[in-house]
Amino acid sequence: MSDYTTISFKKEFIRDVEAYIEDEHFTSVKEFVKHLVLREMESESSISEAEARRIGQRLKDLGYVE
Q1: What is the pLDDT, as a whole number, of residue 4?
Q2: For every residue of the chain, which 3-state class applies, written as one string?
Q3: What is the separation of C-alpha 44 from the centre of its chain, rounded to a whole number of angstroms?
Q4: Distance CA 21, CA 3 (A)
Q5: Directed axis angle between helix 29-42 and helix 11-21, to 10°?
Q6: Can you give the residue ranges of every domain in the chain?
Q7: pLDDT category, 16, cuts 50, 70, 90?
Q8: CB neighbours (10 Å) of residue 4?
Q9: Residue 17: how many CB atoms within 10 A of its CB?
Q10: Can you say whether residue 49 is alpha, beta or left, with left for phi > 0 and alpha for psi between -120 and 50 degrees?
Q11: In angstroms, rounded to a whole number, what is the distance separating the alpha carbons of residues 58 and 43?
């Protein structure tokens, strides 16, 4: 059994992120997303579970995730 899992995003979303990080210090979309998640987890102003669900639904509505 693998110690990893895969999260799928629409290719359009990945292209948008790649364009965004082009001039940043991140070497990959994976590195950027990991940074954001870890930063949010460590933040004192973490989002609530309800807000996380709302954000997830918004990403689905925009077609970025299934």
Answers
A1: 82
A2: CCCCCCCCCCHHHHHHHHHHHCCCCCCCHHHHHHHHHHHHHHCCCCCCHHHHHHHHHHHHHCCCCC
A3: 19
A4: 27
A5: 80
A6: 11-61
A7: very high
A8: 4
A9: 19
A10: alpha
A11: 22
